[in-house]
Design brief:
The structure is a single chain. With 527 residues, the chain is α+β, with helices and mostly antiparallel strands. It has 2 domains: 265 residues, Nitrilase/N-carbamoyl-D-aminoacid amidohydrolase; 168 residues, no CATH class. 16% of the residues lie in helices and 33% in strands. The strands form 5 sheets. It has a 6-stranded mixed sheet. Strand 4 and strand 5 form a beta hairpin. Helix 2 runs parallel beside helix 3. It is globular. The structure holds 2-acetamido-2-deoxy-beta-D-glucopyranose (NAG) (4 copies).
């Protein structure tokens, strides 16, 4: 039975190689087919083993819905097993993990084997995230941990036959007290039979230089994968907005798979092709439960290849936002200016804070019969601390929606969610200081659906001078649903040497990106 199956799997694999080669010989852009899952984990009302079974069944169902059409499928962070249902994860294997081999680690859990079999069944690369049990650094007799093993937050990648081809253990942990960290950061990459080299990392990693930017800038990887459980924050860091901006600024393809727990502010998945924007994306904003959905896209082998995209991906919804959003905690430190709510007007405004100056040119009209969001222009240079020794210097400027008259109301969803202001011209010119390790991205929200502007709506250009980067960002066409239109610069480690003393501690309550195990989530949500 197994032999038959193995033979069949290999046959399917050979067939797909033939198909890939056939595609590669075509003229014009070449593609692979990728799927990312937006996945609602089962998190309560059963034993941990039953929850695992339920999640596994959900994974298999989504893989089945792809009908074997995918080259690669990605599932999100922390939506499969928990610290109570750990598995060992080999670093790499010669054989498929589907069948047990002599000498295999007995701690490899059946669910991991089942997913290896599924990768083979659908002949697809498969990326999942698990809680890993590892005996490493725990030689008998030492007290590396009183439990006798380490727990890692780990991505595992299977090839089309179910062999492990890559493993990555999360470096930038976030509120994960039971989880260990490797001694040094891992740079995890893998090659594929369609001539694409991927690198992968996990959620909070995307806010830091190591390993995410190392993979892009030092290793030159153009296809990145991130598994996420990301808590969205207005106005600049909602999940899909951040994914799209990150892929745009790095000019890479990004496959982002997100956990779906909107009642905790967690949702957001998509596939993005550099400055060609989103190919598919999903934010669950209007319900509490979350969804299980496989988003598929044909992804260009070269993220710079001009491709035809269906630009307007989703209709504007008017249903109220139920996704529980965080708010940028330091808005009161921004230098801001409130846009007067007057009919037909234009302003030119230059606003500076510390070493950042931004020039705004705006024209708008007002539908006075509508009540709803007003707007502020803001510039901010400051440090943002996430955790003990993790912080970034932020330089940003932009326009953002406010639900009331003061700056503390910006980044809050208004009760009356109308958009009375139609922008007929909107241009920002930012003068950002040059530093070696930074990422400056567009941060836009073109609707209360919380999706970023697509390239047909946005002009973005950069010009380097001796000590400044001038960034020009402009609306291509009038827009009447804007929430955010900003340039967001993450200066990763400006304060890393010696500046730590100036970083103000921010209370845990104000922290971003709750990356929590389903177990802790249970407590957070229902306690
Ligand atoms: C898979 O097959 C079903 C039934 O034929 C079809 O409805 C669905 O669209 C297919 N999905 C993909 C991704 O091709
Ligand atoms: C792993 O984490 C546990 C729990 O926080 C801790 O007790 C242990 O010392 C850690 N192990 C290593 C090798 O750091
Ligand atoms: C694979 O990619 C490399 C660089 O991306 C390219 O030089 C090479 O021609 C490609 N090979 C095939 C078979 O397409
Ligand atoms: C930028 O460079 C110019 C000319 O090289 C110099 O005059 C100016 O002081 C520099 N500004 C900063 C902020 O370093």
């Amino acid at each position: 039975m197994h032999t038959m199956f193995g033979f069949l799997g290999r046959f399917v694999w050979l067939l797909s190689v033939v198909i890939s080669v056939a595609v590669a010989s075509d003229d014009g852009p070449q593609f692979y087919t990728a799927g990312v899952a937006e996945f609602r984990p089962a998190i309560m009302g059963a034993t941990s083993q039953q929850l695992l079974e339920s999640n596994l069944a959900g994974y298999l169902e989504l893989m089945h819905s792809g009908n074997g059409t995918t080259d690669i499928i990605v599932f999100p962070e922390a939506t499969l097993n928990t610290v109570l249902t750990l598995t060992a994860v080999p670093e790499i294997t010669d054989q498929s993990l589907c069948e047990e081999q002599p000498g295999d680690d007995p701690e490899i859990a059946p669910f991991l084997r089942r997913l290896a079999c599924a990768a083979r069944e659908y002949s697809t690369y498969l990326v999942i995230n698990v809680k890993e049990r590892s005996p490493e650094n725990c030689p008998t007799g030492t007290t590396c941990s009183n439990r006798g093993y380490n727990i890692f937050n780990t991505n595992v990648v299977f090839d089309r036959l179910g062999a492990v081809v890559s493993r990555y253990r999360k470096w930038n942990l976030y509120l994960e007290p039971s989880t260990n960290r490797t001694e040094s950061p891992e740079l995890a990459t893998f090659g594929t039979d369609f001539n694409v080299t991927f690198a992968h990392f996990i959620c909070f990693d995307m806010l830091f230089y190591t390993p995410a930017q190392d993979l892009v800038e030092r290793l030159g990887i153009r296809h990145l994968i991130v598994t996420k459980m990301f808590n969205s924050e207005l106005p600049f860091l909602t999940a899909s907005q951040f994914q799209q901006g990150w892929a745009w600024a790095n000019r890479v393809n990004l496959l982002a798979s997100g956990a779906s727990v909107p009642r905790s502010g967690i949702s957001g998945s998509g596939i993005y092709a550099g400055q060609q924007g989103a190919l598919t994306r999903l934010m669950i904003t209007d319900e509490m439960e979350g969804q299980r959905k496989l988003l598929l896209a044909k992804v260009p082998l070269n993220p710079e290849d001009q491709i035809l995209t269906d630009e307007i991906l989703e209709p504007e919804k008017t249903s109220p936002i139920k996704l529980k959003l965080l708010q940028q905690p330091e808005l009161d430190k921004f230098a801001t200016w409130e846009l007067p709510m007057v009919q037909e007007s234009s302003v030119n405004k230059r606003i500076c804070q510390k070493d950042l100056c931004c020039e705004f040119q705006i024209s708008w009209t007002l539908v006075e019969s509508l009540s709803g969001y007003s707007y502020r222009l803001g510039v901010w240079v400051g440090e943002r601390r996430y955790e003990e020794e993790q912080y970034s210097a932020i330089r940003l400027c932009g326009l953002f929606a406010c639900s009331g008259a003061n700056v503390e109301s910006c980044g809050l969803i208004g009760e009356q969610q109308g958009h009375p202001v139609m922008f007929t011209k909107l241009q920002i010119l930012g003068e950002f200081v040059r530093k070696p390790r930074r990422l400056i991205m567009p941060s836009t929200l073109g609707s209360s659906n919380l999706y970023a502007l697509q390239p047909s709506q946005l002009i973005w250009s950069t010009e380097e001078t001796d000590n400044l980067t001038r960034i020009k960002m402009e609306l291509r066409q009038p827009h009447s649903q804007l929430m955010t239109f900003a340039i967001y610069g993450n200066y990763f480690d400006e304060y890393a040497s010696g500046g730590a003393g100036t970083v103000e501690a921010i209370t845990l309550g104000a922290l971003l990106f709750l990356l929590i195990t389903p177990l802790t989530m249970m407590h957070l949500i229902w306690e």
